[in-house]
Amino acid sequence: MKVVSQKTRISRKLAVNPSMLEEDRPDTIDISVIPGPRGLEDDKFPFEMLSDIAERESWRKEINRPLSHIHKWWAQRLGTVFRAMTIGALVPKGSNIIDLFYKPVRIKDAIVFDPFMGSGTTIGEALKLGARGIGRDINPVAYFLVKNALSIHDRPAILATFRDIERDVVSKVRPLYQATLPDGTVVDVLYYFWVKIVDCPACAESVDLFSSYIFARHAYPKKFPRAQAVCPTCGAINAVRNDAQKAYCHTCNRAFNPQIGPASRQKATCPACAHAFLIAKTIRATDRPPAHRLYAKLVLMPDGAKAYLPATDEDRALYAQTKETLNKFKNAYPIVPIEPGYNTNQALGYNYRYWHEMFNVRQLLGLSILADRIRQIPDTILCNLFTCLLSGALEFNNMFASYKGEGTGAVRHMFAHHILKPERTPLEANLWGTPKSSGSFSTLFEGRIKRSLDYAENPFELRLSNRSGKRISEKVFGLSEKIGFSIADSFSSFAAGKRVYLSCADSSATDLPEHSVDAVLTDPPFFDNVHYSQLADFFHVWQRHILGSNGYRQDYTTRSRNEVQSAEVNAFTDRLTAVWIEVHRILKDDGILAFTYHHSRPEGWRSVLHALMAAGFGITAAHPMKAEMSVAMPKHQAKEPINLDIIIVCRKRSQLQRHCWNGDLWETAMPIAAEQIRRLREGGRRLSRNDVRVIVMAQILRRLSVSHTVETALTLLDACSAETEALIEQLYTADKERTISNKMKE
């Protein structure tokens, strides 16, 4: 490591003052990549401390790393993890990673490549550290969002463009979300509340698919028990207790149980004839998407208060008028069929055959007005950025979104469950928005675009400390380079001197020369059922509608037969192997491949081992790390959630000494796994059984990956499956018992 100059301490001023003058910033630490073991290959790599920082980042990821969150992407990893990985992959073993994490490190002679770019976390962190970055992703939506995040942006021009859009469209869009109070006052509607309806197969009466008549409650109902319920008889809105079993409507005086509606799981019961029927089957029989009924709205009163009100005939008339207006537009929205797939079949089962059917006519009208205006922006970079903004607003402004309730961001976006799950009580948000809206075009401009501009101008890291017995975090500025680059569109352009090269294509065949990359840092797709491309098409069709079908947007879909992600184990293994083979070709002989991974099934680990060894890689280290978003909905729903990723560190097998493993788990895998569990536990982290599984499997793969042949390694892995399960159970039980014992001592 070559150090040019260094200040031994980062001042307190640096931690709290983002507007520091350049001369007040600490001197940068220039690091040269030299041959030999790296910091990521050190068993003392400080994963427990870094996990604490990553955990804090995950609580408000869109604030702490706004650049990688300017648009929706799935499985977004934490910047803290990849900053540490980048440093660790390029500095010598024995370096103080935590110390360097909070120093203005510059690794200017290094090239970092991410073949599964996703939301761009790897490239962003590498660039902040002064390295040069190459990102590639087969999905056009991922490529588009990263290119927008990392490009050079003219802040005054962006603000002026937003004001121009506001001037031209607000007078057209805002009236779509207004209501008249009984005294004649016109107010803004923040949200409209809808319910899916289906005709009873027995008596043909329309049935509301409410599972509960309570449609609005606080995120903390025990502390704030007040809720809102719709009367099933007259439609009046009533304030009730969240746990009330009986309520009287203040308008019609009818009693009802607000907790029980006609719909329960897969069935509904008709209130008119008591006939019970399967909801999905009944909807499919109609051969059209389900209809909706508008029943309530949340308005912004003149004094700034919010009020829940029932829907009126005027509201319904306004909605009908928007349909007439939309019919006058030509090419108002993309008309693209939804292709069958694991993540789209649930929507297809409800007769949603086209992407535009996921929006109601008011949403389509507002989106078409905004799309037409954005298309007229003459500057390509600005047009792309505002297209990205509108595309991001789509996930909050559709009939698959729902109401999170009071005390939250209000709108639960459509991908909260990682599938296209039809929502029985959808929420329609105000598309342009107000200062008290959530998920709108204007509020996302403030929360995503402007916040990202601030971060790009002055990036920061989080540092944890204790104050008055409480664990707090502070922002540390002045550590990283500003973000904003001219993006190369070919390696030749990159080789001519540009800092970043992004491409949208298959990573198993790149234009990169042999031995041209110092480190490959990535987060590959998992062997599972969440197909990003099937979900990304929701955004892609609108981006294509605005920007045209040239270049990487030629196809209507982002799906590709070459994408790695697959639920079929052989296909996943073959495609991942192909990418690792290409990585092996372009990686320098002394280079590092490191990636984050976790899985709960043996096939997932077997596949990774097979792909790595077949491509010529062996594992030199494996570190557990907090890397999944803490607030992810699928995690909360899991019985044994995985809270850890493993950083798997690899080198070319040609650089490693091979040997046969004797199969003794207790002699090889257990000591390191047990030590890593101990370090995490002493850091206050509780581990699930699947967390222990992740740690153990990584250490087993580490030993097996230096076997003489792939066949030998896979045979040994299969043969020790029963012993592996016993080891996992033993370590998990021992850790659980220690946790209980420590609590009793406290």
Describe this structure in words.
The chain has 746 residues and is α+β, with helices and mostly antiparallel strands. Among the domains are: 12-150 and 458-530 and 565-656, Vaccinia Virus protein VP39 (Rossmann fold), CATH 3.40.50; 663-746, no CATH class. Helix content is 37%, strand content 19%. It has an 8-stranded mixed sheet, sandwiched between helices. The longest helix has 25 residues, at 721-745. It is globular. The protein starts with 11 loop residues before the first helix and ends with a helix.
Task: Offer a quick outline of the entry.
Helix content is 37%, strand content 19%.
List keywords for this structure.
746 residues, alpha+beta, Rossmann fold, eight-stranded mixed sheet, six-stranded antiparallel sheet, 23 helices, disordered N terminus, transferase, DNA methylase N-4/N-6 domain-containing protein
List the helices and strands and how they pair.
Blueprint: H1 12-16, E1 29-30, H2 47-59, H3 61-64, H4 79-90, H5 97-101, E2 105-106, E3 111-114, H6 121-128, E4 132-137, H7 140-150, H8 155-173, E5 178-180, E6 186-199, E7 206-208, E8 214-216, E9 226-230, E10 237-241, E11 247-248, E12 255-256, E13 263-264, E14 267-269, E15 276-278, H9 279-286, E16 291-300, E17 306-310, H10 313-327, H11 345-348, H12 361-375, H13 380-394, E18 402-403, E19 411-412, E20 427-429, H14 441-457, E21 460-467, E22 470-477, E23 487-488, H15 491-495, E24 500-504, E25 517-522, H16 532-547, H17 569-586, E26 587-597, H18 602-614, E27 617-626, H19 633-637, E28 644-652, H20 669-682, H21 689-704, H22 710-719, H23 721-745
Parallel strand pairs: 1-2, 3-4, 3-25, 4-24, 23-24, 25-26
Antiparallel strand pairs: 5-6, 6-7, 6-16, 6-20, 8-9, 9-10, 11-12, 13-14, 14-15, 16-17, 18-19, 21-22, 26-28, 27-28
Domain DNA methylase N-4/N-6: 98-141
Family: Belongs to the N(4)/N(6)-methyltransferase family.
Pfam families: N6_N4_Mtase
